[in-house]
Design brief:
Layout lengths: L8 H6 L8 E3 L14 H6 L2 H35 L3 E3 L3 H19 L3 H11 L6
Parallel strand pairs: 1-2
């Protein structure tokens, strides 16, 4: 039994969770969270030329993903509605309250390392919350 999930509209659609849940509270959780991980040892063993190619491709695909994700999210939401889900958007008041409540946790997390700080910066500059 599923009581609730915290995930994106894309994931609900792709995992067909609409078969199990009827409602969605649509927060903007579409941060570029697609990562490819490799141990430092394995990375170090790659030739420098291959490292350069991988880093270049990662930058290119990251930019492409960030450009495409808003349209992909809208398509997923449309499909969820077509599957019978009821989607509810948070009010501006609810968003402001959630941000205020979460801000101390974000700052604590961002202080862990430069990557966390960079990711938080990206989240705070996201142009849309819907």
């Amino acid at each position: 039994m599923i009581d609730g999930v915290i995930t994106s509209a894309l994931s609900v659609r792709d995992w067909k969770l609409y078969d199990f849940i009827e409602h969605g509270y649509m927060l903007n959780l579409s941060m570029g969270h697609q990562f490819v991980l490799m141990s430092q040892k394995s990375w170090s063993e790659l030739p420098a030329s291959l490292q350069t190619i991988l880093q270049s491709n990662a930058r290119d695909w990251s930019a492409t993903f960030r450009r495409q994700i808003p349209a992909m999210d809208l398509d997923a939401r449309r499909e969820l509605r077509d599957q019978g889900m009821t989607l509810r958007e948070p009010t501006p008041f609810d968003l402001a309250k959630a941000r205020q409540s979460a801000a101390p946790m974000w700052l604590e997390w961002a202080a862990l390392d430069p990557v966390s700080e960079e990711l938080l910066c990206c989240v705070q500059t996201t142009p849309s919350d819907s």
